[in-house]
C-alpha cells in the first residue's frame, strides 16, 4: 500500500514521459540538437536508456536519423528545438521520406496558450512539415514510420505539454497502454495479387531469353540478401544493383552486371526489379536506355508505386517475402541459365572487358592525384579489412560517381550515398549513424571537399563520442574542382572575384580534426596515402585524411553534366 501511495504522490513531467515512452517503444538511439524547450527531454530519454547523440546542426542530425533507419530497420529518431530548429530538421525528414527510410522527427514547439501571438520561435510546425511526412504522429509514431512504404513521421510537443506534470501511476499507465496498442496492431494483410503475381513472375523469368534482376536499396532495407542470392545462384540470372543495393549480392559475384550496365538494361527482355523505383536513377524504365519491349516485374511495398509504373507484373509486398515465394515457385519447376547461355556470356564478357579497361587506368600511379589512383588505394585498404566489412559513406559529384565504379561492396548495407534525392551534406551524419548502428564495423567516408563542407563541423562530434570513423576528403579546390568558367563568363564588375565553384586552394581540412583532438593527415603521394590509411584504420579513432587532387581531374557535375 505504501509503495502505491508513493507512486501516486510522485509526479512526472512531459519531458520524462516522452523520454520513457520512446524507450518503452524500443528506441535505442536519438539524434539531435538540444535547446528550448527540449533539453530536459534529451536528458530524460538518456536516463531511460536511449543514447542521445548531440550534434552541432539539426540538418546533420536528421541525415543521421534517416541513415539509422535504413541500417537498422527501426525508425531513426530526430529531436529538434522549436521554430528554426524544426526548419533545419526538415532536411532529414524529407530526405528519409524521399528514400523510403523510417524516421520520427520530434520537435518542441511554443506554448499553446501563446500560439498566434508571436511567441518565442513560434511557427506552425505541423503545417511547415506536412509536405515531408507520411503521417502526423501520435502514439503510433514509431510503428507508422515503418509500416507500408517507410518514411518520415512528425511529432509536435508544445512546451506547456513538456512542462505539464501528472502522477507517476498515470504516466506508467499511459506508457503501458501505448505499448499494448503497438503490440496489438494487426499484421499487414497479404495482398490479393501476391500468389498470382508470384506465379506470373516465375513464369516470365522462366520464359525470358535475356532476364535481369535489378536490386534496389529497398531490398537491402528488407534484409532480402539471402533470398536474392539464392534466386541468382539457382537461376543463373545476371543482376544489376542500384548504388545502395550494392552488396546485397556481392559485387565480386560472377553474375554481376554492374560493369555491363548499359548492355544489361538496354537488351534485357524481362527485368525483375526488387525494392527499386523506376525513377531517374533507372531512367524511368523507358527507351532509349531500356528496350521498348522489356517486361517489368516490380516488387514494391507500395501499391501506388506499382499503379504509377504500370508494369507487366506488379507484386505488392515485402521484398524478402516475395523473393522467397518466387524461389519456392521456381523450385517446383526449376530452370537455370548456364554460364554458356548467350545472354550470360554477353554480360560476363562485356563486364570483364570493362573491368580490364578500368583496372588498366587504376594501375597507374598518377601524381598530382586524379580520382582513380587514390580510389584504388582506398579500395584495396577497405578490402583488406575483411569481414565485417567497413561501411562506406560516399558523397560528392566526381568522388561519388567514380567511387561507385571503383569501390567494392560484398556485404549488404555497407554503402551509403546521396540517395534518391542526390542530397549533398549527408556525409558526417551518415558516419555517426553507421558508427552507432554497426559498432563492430569501421566507417570510412569518401568525400568531395564540397560535400564535406556541408557537415564538416561534425568532426567535433566524432571526437566527442570517439567514434571509429575515418573521413577521406578529396580536396580539388572547389565544387567540381576550381575555376572552369569560359572567358565570356568572366566579365562584369565582379570578374575578379573567385569563381562560384572555387574554394581556398589546398585548404587544411585535416587541421579541423586536429583542432578537436582527432588525427589529421595531409597526403599528396601514393605512399603517404597508404601510410595514413594503414595507421587510421588500425587505430579506429576519428581521423581526417586530406588528399590533394588535381583541380582539373574530374568533370563538372560528375555524370550529371546534362542537367547543369
UniProtKB/TrEMBL annotation:
<dbReference type="GO" id="GO:0001561">
    <property type="term" value="P:fatty acid alpha-oxidation"/>
</dbReference>
<dbReference type="GO" id="GO:0005777">
    <property type="term" value="C:peroxisome"/>
</dbReference>
<dbReference type="InterPro" id="IPR045025">
    <property type="entry name" value="HACL1-like"/>
</dbReference>
<dbReference type="GO" id="GO:0106359">
    <property type="term" value="F:2-hydroxyacyl-CoA lyase activity"/>
</dbReference>
<dbReference type="InterPro" id="IPR029061">
    <property type="entry name" value="THDP-binding"/>
</dbReference>
<dbReference type="InterPro" id="IPR029035">
    <property type="entry name" value="DHS-like_NAD/FAD-binding_dom"/>
</dbReference>
<dbReference type="Pfam" id="PF00205">
    <property type="entry name" value="TPP_enzyme_M"/>
</dbReference>
<protein>
    <recommendedName>
        <fullName>2-hydroxyacyl-CoA lyase</fullName>
        <ecNumber>4.1.2.63</ecNumber>
    </recommendedName>
</protein>
<keyword id="KW-0479">Metal-binding</keyword>
<comment type="similarity">
    <text>Belongs to the TPP enzyme family.</text>
</comment>
<dbReference type="InterPro" id="IPR012000">
    <property type="entry name" value="Thiamin_PyroP_enz_cen_dom"/>
</dbReference>
<dbReference type="GO" id="GO:0000287">
    <property type="term" value="F:magnesium ion binding"/>
</dbReference>
<comment type="function">
    <text>Catalyzes a carbon-carbon cleavage reaction; cleaves a 2-hydroxy-3-methylacyl-CoA into formyl-CoA and a 2-methyl-branched fatty aldehyde.</text>
</comment>
<dbReference type="Pfam" id="PF02775">
    <property type="entry name" value="TPP_enzyme_C"/>
</dbReference>
<feature type="domain" description="Thiamine pyrophosphate enzyme TPP-binding">
    <location>
        <begin position="396"/>
        <end position="547"/>
    </location>
</feature>
<dbReference type="InterPro" id="IPR012001">
    <property type="entry name" value="Thiamin_PyroP_enz_TPP-bd_dom"/>
</dbReference>
<keyword id="KW-0786">Thiamine pyrophosphate</keyword>
<keyword id="KW-0456">Lyase</keyword>
<keyword id="KW-0460">Magnesium</keyword>
<comment type="subunit">
    <text>Homotetramer.</text>
</comment>
<feature type="domain" description="Thiamine pyrophosphate enzyme central">
    <location>
        <begin position="198"/>
        <end position="324"/>
    </location>
</feature>
<dbReference type="Pfam" id="PF02776">
    <property type="entry name" value="TPP_enzyme_N"/>
</dbReference>
<dbReference type="InterPro" id="IPR011766">
    <property type="entry name" value="TPP_enzyme_TPP-bd"/>
</dbReference>
<dbReference type="InterPro" id="IPR000399">
    <property type="entry name" value="TPP-bd_CS"/>
</dbReference>
<dbReference type="GO" id="GO:0030976">
    <property type="term" value="F:thiamine pyrophosphate binding"/>
</dbReference>
<feature type="domain" description="Thiamine pyrophosphate enzyme N-terminal TPP-binding">
    <location>
        <begin position="18"/>
        <end position="127"/>
    </location>
</feature>
